[in-house]
Amino acid sequence: MSTLKLVFAGIKHTWLRNLLLMLSVVIAYTLFGVLLAFERAYTSSADVGANRIITANKISFTQPLPFAHFRAVRGIDGNHVSSIAAWFGGYYRERRNALHALAVDPITYLAVYGDDLQLSEQERSTFLSQRGSMLVGESMAQRFGWRVGDQVPIFNRRISRKDGSETWTFKIAGIFKGASPVVDTSFLYIHYELLNEARASEKDTITFVVTKPAPGQDPGKLGETIDRLFETAAVRTTTDTERSFAQAFVAQFGDLALVTILILGTAFFSLLIIVASTTALAIQQRAREVGILKGLGFSHTHVLTMLISESLAVILVAGVAGLAIATLLVQSAAGHMVQIAPGMAVSSTIVAIGVLSMIMLAIAASALPAWQSVNTATSTVLRRG
Fold first, then answer.
1. Contact status, residue 192 vs residue 105, Cβ threshold 8 Å
2. Whether 265 contacts 233, CB under 8 Å
3. Rounded CA gap, 194 and 131, in Å?
4. How many CA atoms lie within 13 A of 340 on its CB side?
């Protein structure tokens, strides 16, 4: 009988124990795949927007800035390009359909972000020329089934119109795609000028100024220059990279992300300990079988290879299945995690790390007990049986 047949016979002989063991491994590597995909996307995106800086209210980014600050920033010497954004928000049809909506100055905003947003020339031209239009990200359009040309009512109880109405209607001029997976397409953009003229309160205020430094210009020094400009102003500012600003914007998720990592990490390593101890115990309980194989003439190396191969087969099959499940989960969740972890995916690197850890786990869990079992005298093992 070949070694491969003996390996499968051994797995089949203790099928219930192996099935439970495989279930533990599947769960462990599902957690492993999701956790590592999240962590890598979150940390690798630290430089996203590093070439752009955001100027916001020093007290809090939720507090407004005067529109005059934008003019002052544009007046700073240099070839940088600056634009504005004012948080609009609102919801579509029902309050649970909350929207990520910003009011922007179309010309300057597209000058700053033009390389990140993929638009046709017709869509770009329509948005620039029609004040009542809006640009919608691909993921948001897919979520609500919107198409170019649709008239979309947005309800906003925080920002009402002069006539008291809470309904704002915009025509979709274009649906943009991200130039890379890390570009968030769950946003929509409207004209700041229209919003400012029509709203009943907070006129001539914005949420932040975004600046794209000229090539070779130090973003850090430019940010310091901007903040010094408003040191004695009634509304002082703080300027940081776009990525840092985005992390602050989603800071309410920060603690949750940390807690999730800690919980999943603890659960993963706990399951690995269970797998390792179960494998070691299973080999010890098969000492009599090992003795019989040795009595039939199988060499120590042959039996040792067989025992480690059984462990390796069980853990590899279950681990790969766990990574496959993790891939499906991450693919379904990636669109909702763009702000926190853009480009989240179970990459080939993660799969390679996972498979390598499976091999190491199988060897670590089975090598020592298998070696002890094989090197125990055959007569001693059979007498114990």
1. yes
2. no
3. 6
4. 17
Q: Which amino acid is at 10?
A: G
Helix intervals (H) in 99-253:
106-113, 121-129, 138-144, 192-198, 219-229, 242-249
Stretch (H or E) spanning 369 = helix 348-374
Q: How many CA atoms lie within 13 A of 314 on its CB side?
A: 34
- For the stretch 236-295, pLDDT in tens is 999 988 877 666 655 555 555 566 677 777 877 777 787 777 777 766 666 566 555 555
Residue 227's alpha-carbon distances to 60, 209, 236, 365, in angstroms, are 14, 12, 7, 58
More confident residue, 172 or 264: 172
Q: Are 279 and 308 in contact (CB under 8 A)?
A: no
Residue 216: per-residue pLDDT: 85
pLDDT for residue 366: 74
Residues 168, 156: Cα–Cα separation, whole Å: 8
Distance, in Å, from the CA atom of 105 to the CA atom of 112, rounded to the nearest integer, reads 11
Least confident interval from 94-108, 263-277, 316-330:
263-277
Alpha carbon distance 32, 252 (integer Å): 24
Per residue in 336-347, pLDDT (tens digit) is 666 566 678 898
Alpha carbons 48 and 54: distance in angstroms, whole number: 13
